[in-house]
Design brief:
335 residues, alpha/beta, Methyltransferase, Cobalt-precorrin-4 Transmethylase, Domain 2, Rossmann fold, five-stranded mixed β-sheet, four-stranded parallel β-sheet
């Protein structure tokens, strides 16, 4: 591209009538976190490019429009310009505000959401669904897999008549409402203590005798089910979905990490972090030592910290929205 022959290009332009003082800009990796823009003239830009060791790909802009750079460089003035954020969940939905503010998202999913190996326990629960007082959904995935299985068993939302629904988080509540169903309870805090407080208020007589169904991920904390049983409630905890490590290699990501091109790594569950370590291999911890780590909640943070790494960003609520806001605040504070 142009930078390989920039001396010859500038020489030819001058020979064909352009003044040596004509403004020139060279832009490498435009619109990316590592965008580099150099300015000079037809006479000086070849030396500047050599001095800065600029290599392809790059674009060369020639003419008076270059003088407008200071007024038009809106992209480089975005608050998160220069940040490369690693997203390790199954998709980048919810992280778009970071991109809007100038960050570059690097999508490297370390988990894949799949059905359980055995549906039998959840199928039995669906068969006696009218015997539950509550169903608790702790994630959008839990909602999706449960209602798909409900339909697969030739049942529908009419079978939920009389069963109250609890959603942990506003996104989970929205997913339930898409089925045309009212959500009866959204706890203020997205942890075991918050759920217990919310249920204690929702069930004036306490939890004794209250029957709860909790369809969730195969691996999750047991704190809430334990507390429910201690308070006299009955709770069935059945697997609605699993998270597994996808069959991918991390060669490109390893190179980015080694070259210091990732500034923030996000982990939305302990599984995303542990699978990252597995995929990256023995060098994983060393690759993350100079990267700011964002963990979605205390459980994920503990998984990170027990390896000796530091968690720099921990949102007050275990949601992607809260994590995104905390990342923005952290970057602003670092400036």
């Amino acid at each position: 591209m142009t930078v390989k022959n920039i001396s010859l290009v500038c020489q030819r332009l001058i020979e064909h009538g352009r003044h040596p003082d004509t403004p020139v800009a060279v832009v490498r990796w435009g619109t990316r976190a590592d965008q580099t823009t150099l300015t000079g003239s037809l006479e000086t830009i070849p030396g500047i490019v050599r001095e800065r060791e600029i290599k392809p790909p790059a674009v060369m802009v020639v003419g008076d429009v270059v003088r407008l750079r200071e007024r038009l460089q809106w992209y480089e003035k975005k608050p998160l310009f220069g940040q490369r954020v690693l997203v390790t969940r199954e998709h980048t939905e919810g992280f778009e505000p970071l991109e809007d503010l100038g960050a570059e998202l690097i999508d490297f999913r370390t988990i894949e959401i799949v059905p359980p190996e055995d549906w039998s326990e959840l199928d039995r629960a669906i068969g006696r669904i009218d015997g539950y007082h509550w169903i608790i959904f702790t994630s959008v995935n839990g909602v999706r897999f449960f209602f798909q299985r409900l339909q697969d068993k030739d049942r529908d939302i009419r079978d939920l008549k009389g069963v109250r629904l609890c959603a942990v988080g506003t996104k989970t509540a929205s997913a339930i409402r898409k089925y045309g169903i009212k959500v009866d309870l959204v706890p203020a805090s997205f942890n075991a203590e918050g759920l217990i407080d919310a249920f204690s208020q929702a069930n004036a007589g306490g939890l004794k005798g209250v029957r709860i169904l909790l369809p969730r991920a195969e691996t999750a904390r047991e704190e809430f089910p334990r507390r429910v049983r201690e308070l006299g409630g009955e709770i069935d905890v059945f697997t609605a979905y699993r998270t597994v490590a996808p069959e991918i290699h991390g060669k490109r990501l390893k190179r980015f990490l080694k070259e210091g091109k990732i500034s923030i790594a996000t982990f939305t569950s302990a599984s995303t972090f542990n699978n990252f370590l597995s995929i990256m291999g023995s060098d994983a911890l060393n690759l993350l030592k100079d990267v700011a780590i964002a963990a979605i909640g205390p459980v994920t943070a503990r998984s990170v910290e027990k390896t000796g790494l530091k968690v720099h960003i921990l949102p007050p609520e275990a949601t992607v929205d809260a994590m995104v806001k905390e990342i923005i605040a952290w970057v602003e504070k670092k400036k």
